[in-house]
Fold these 2 entries.
Entry 1:
Amino acid sequence: VGKHVRALRDAGYSIESAAGSGYRFVSAPDAPVPAEVSRLLRTDFWVRLEGGGVTDSTNDDARRLAEAGAAEGTAVLASAQRRGRGRLGRSWTSPEGGVYLSAVLRPALRPADLGPLPLVIALGVARAIKALGASPQLKWPNDVLIDGRKVAGILLELSAEADAVRWVVAGVGVNVDALEGDAAPSATSLREAGAQAGRAQVAASVLDGIAEAYREYLGGGFGPLADEWRARDALAGREVEVRDLAGDLIASGRVTGIGPDGRLLLETRDGPVSVPTGDVTLRR
Ligand code: ATP
C-alpha cells in the first residue's frame, strides 16, 4: 500500500497518512492524468490514454506509438512540454498550466482526401471550448481563438503511402492558465475567458470534441460540418495574405469563406480563388 500511495503522490494525488490508522484521499491533481481524464470522457472512442506528466512533445510520443502499431483512439497527454511544436517548425509555448495532447487516428481515406481534417479537429476543439463556457472562433486552417487571440493550436502530422493513410497524429495545445509575461503576445487562455474547468476536464472535453467531429467527418464528409465552421469563422470578410511553406505569396484578397472541401475562399483582384493549404496573415 505504501508503495502505491507513493506512486499516487508522485502523480500529484494528495493523500494524508496517520500512523496506525491508515491513509485518507484528499484530492486528485489538477493535471491531465489518464486515470482522471478517462473517467470524465463521454465518448467510447478513446481506447488508450498515456502520459500525463512532462514530456518533450506529445506529437513525438504519439508518433512513436503509431509507428509501433498503436490503435486509433490512442492519445498521449501532458501537463507541460519541453519542446512543443507548431506548424512549419514553429514552437508552441507549453508551460505547466496548459493541456497538451496528441491523438493517433487511422482514417480509411486516401491522403488526397485529408484536406479538411485540420478543420475537423479545430472544430472539435472549438466545440469543447464552447462546452467549457467560452466562445471560440476559428482561424483557417486550424487555430482556435477567443476574442481574436489564440487559445489553442493544432498540429497534424501523418504517414501515408500513395493511396492509403497509415496514421495521423493530431496534436492540440490548449492554454488553460494565462501564459506568463510575453511568452506568446497574441495568446489568451481559458481562464482569461472565464472558463473555470480543471485541466483533466479540459483534456476530456477536447478528446470528446475531437472524437465526435472526427466520427461525423468519417460518416458524412466535411459538408455537414462546414456551416458550423462558418459560424465561427474569424477570417470571413477580412483582407488577408496567404503564403506557402516557403513564405511565397499564394493569394491576397478578401476572405469570402470556406468551401465544402475545407478550402479557403478569397475574392482577389483577378477573381475568386480557393486555397487548399497555407499560412494566413491579416492585411493592414
Ligand atoms: P500563426 O498563429 O502565427 O498564424 P500557425 O497557425 O502556423 O501560425 P501554430 O503552428 O499553430 O501557428 O503555432 C505556432 C505559433 O503560435 C508560434 O509561432 C507563436 O506565434 C504562437 N504560439 C506559440 N505558443 C503559443 C501558445 N501557448 N499560445 C498561443 N500562441 C502560441
Entry 2:
Amino acid sequence: MTMQFPGQPVREAGDDALRTLRVVDDAPAPSIETLDQTRLPFEERWVRLRSFEDCLRAIASMQVRGAPLIGAVGAYGLALGLRKQADDASLALLTAGLVAARPTAVNLAWAVGRVRDRVAGLAFVARAVAAWVEACAIAEEDVRINRALGEHGAQLLRRLVRPGRPLRILTHCNAGRLATVAYGTALAPVYRLHADAVPVEVWVDETRPRNQGASLTAWELSRAGITCTVVADNAGGELMRQGLVDAVIVGCDRIAANGDVANKVGTYLKALAARDCGVPFYVACPSPTLDLSLPAGGDIPIEERSPREVTHVVGRDAQGAIVEVQLVPDGVPARNPAFDVTPAALVTAIVTEHGPVGANAADLAALAALAARQRREAS
Ligand code: MRU
C-alpha cells in the first residue's frame, strides 16, 4: 500500500546551504538524511535515516547532536517507527526509547512528546502519516524560529559594533546550523551579521571532551566565509581580560523556570569570566528549549557520558585516517559530565525568536505563554 505523506518542507531561497536535515522522497515513503557529525570536519558524509532504529542510533552515537536537531530527528524517528507498528504499546515504547537517548536537551522529549500527543487520539492506521506531518512541522518551525532568533540576536549584537574593528564574539560548543535543522541558534545572529556585511570574527572554544567547537563550529563558520579562530577551552578568560571579546553567545539544552541554563560543560566557566570582565553573556534559546516544569537548574538532569571521551581524542592522522588516541595513563579513572548549569544571575539576556528576554521567572513565563499561543494559532 502506498501512503500519502503531505507536509513536505517548503524551502525558502538560500535555506538549502544552511540545512543539516533534509527530507528525501524515498519509495514507497519519504525518509530523512543528515550530515554525519562524527565524520566532520574531515569528511562531509550525508547519512540516510529510514527507520526508528536509524534515528535512535544517529542520536545515541552523536551522528546528530545539538538540542534542536536531536528534537527534529527524534520526531521523525517516532514517525518512522509508527510505520511498522502503531498500537498504543508501540507508541509508548518508541517514545520512551527516543527520550532516554539524550537526557539533558529537553528539545528531544518536547518534540517526541509533541508527535506522540498529536497521534495518540487517532486510529492506529492514521498515526504514521499524521506523525510524519507533525515531524515536518517541527523541523520547519525550527528553521523559522532560528531565522527570527538570528534577526533579534543580530540587532542586539549590532549595538556592540565599534568603528574600525570587527565585532569579536566568543562561543562554546556548537550551536550553529549543525545543531539545528538550519541556521543555528547562537550562530544565527553571526550568520545574519555576516550576511549584512557587518565585520564579525568568532573565537571558537575547542570544547573538550568531544571538541564540537574545534571540529564542527570551525567547520561551519569557515565554510560560510566567517573569520574564526579556535582556542583552547581555558583561553577564553584571558581573551576576555585582554579586552578581545565584545560578547559571549552560547546555545542551551534546557532553561529552567528561574532562568538557570544548562549547556555544554564549560559554559559556566565562560559565564563567570564574562561577569568578572564586564563582557555581556548571551544565551540563544528557541522557545522549545524552555522547561518551566523544572523550578531551577539543579533539577536539570546532566548527561554523564563515557569516560573514554575524556581519556581519548579522535582526530586525523598523517595518512588521512580518522583515528582515536589515548591521552590519560592506563588505569586512571575519568568522569564525563557532558553539560553544566549556568546560574541565571550570570546571564545578560536570553535571545529568543520573540526577542531578548531576562533570565528570570516572569520573563520566561511570559515567553512560554506567547510561544504556546502562537503555536495554537498556527495549528
Ligand atoms: O552534546 P551536544 O553536542 O549535543 O551539545 C550541544 C550543546 O551543548 C549546544 O550548545 C546546545 O545543544 C544548543 S544547540 C543549538
